[in-house]
Amino acid sequence: MTTLSEIESLLHDQRGAPPIADWHPELSGDIDIVIKADGRWIHEGGEIKRHKLVKLFASILRREDDDEYYLLTPVEKWRITVEDLPLQIIDFEVNDVAAGRRIVVKTNVDTWLELGEEHPLSVATDSATQEPRPAVRLNNGLQARVSRACFYNLVELAECRNGVMVLLAGGKEFELGSI
Question: Cα angle at 168 between 167 and 173, to 5 degrees?
Answer without folding.
Answer: 80
